[in-house]
Specification:
Strand order of the largest sheet: 2-3-4-1-5-7-6
Structural class: alpha/beta
Strand content: 15-25%
Largest sheet: 7 strands, mixed
Helix content: 25-40%
Main location: cytoplasm
Organism: Corynebacterium aquatimens
Order of helices and strands: EHEEEHEEHEHH
GO biological process, one term: rescue of stalled ribosome
Subunit structure: Monomer.
Distance between the termini: 9 Å
Function: Hydrolyzes ribosome-free peptidyl-tRNAs (with 1 or more amino acids incorporated), which drop off the ribosome during protein synthesis, or as a result of ribosome stalling.
Oligomer: single chain
Length: 187
């Protein structure tokens, strides 16, 4: 999916603060944490990148994949993720086709993973913001399934709730599977 002549940028969409840290909407940031743990020989540490309002770990080729890799978590709210993603892409010289956005997806059952280039936003405001800021939908999307809300619960409320106890127990496996799929696409 990605070309080898520029770095690859992997961004986990999320909301800031401890109140949102364990919520479904922060599945993208949780994936970045999983990828940081996989970096060898020592886990990667993210640091604040003030020019882009993100947290970033810059990895040389061979530390996580065969390509130079930029791992990032947004520090602003989900609905305005596009500005920081565009700023990262500009700063590091990354083409849209080498950008991977990890996000929570209501339209996939909990635990399902889907990686694709381009497509619609399915009502996800983070993706809408990224597409608008990049000026194209032609970037990679790693959807992490969180399922639909139960009963008549509003989707906006559901995504801001923590995972259930059962889901939280299974979440490390889901994130590992998502990381495996992403890294396989980069190899």
């Amino acid at each position: 999916m990605a070309s080898s002549d520029s770095p690859v940028l992997i961004v986990g969409l999320s909301n800031p603060g401890t109140i949102y840290a364990q919520t479904r909407h922060n599945a993208g940031a949780m994936l970045i944490d999983e990828l940081c743990e996989r970096v060898t020989p020592m886990p990667a540490q993210v640091s604040v990148h003030k020019k882009t309002n993100t947290e970033v770990a810059e990895l040389a080729p061979g530390r996580l994949s065969s390509r130079r890799t930029i791992l990032a978590r947004t520090r602003g709210f989900m609905n305005v993720s596009g500005g920081p993603v565009k700023a990262l892409a500009t700063y590091y010289g990354v083409k849209p086709s080498d950008i991977f956005i990890a996000y929570d997806e209501l339209d996939l059952d909990f635990g399902a993973i889907r990686l694709r280039l381009g497509g619609g936003d399915h009502g996800h405001n983070g993706l809408k913001s990224v597409t608008k800021s990049l000026g194209t939908p032609d970037y990679n999307r790693l959807a992490i399934g969180i399922g639909r809300p139960p009963g008549r619960q509003a989707p906006a409320d559901f995504v801001l709730k923590p995972f259930s106890k059962t889901e939280f127990t299974e979440l490390p496996i889901v994130l590992a599977d998502a990381a495996d799929e992403l890294l396989a696409a980069l190899s």
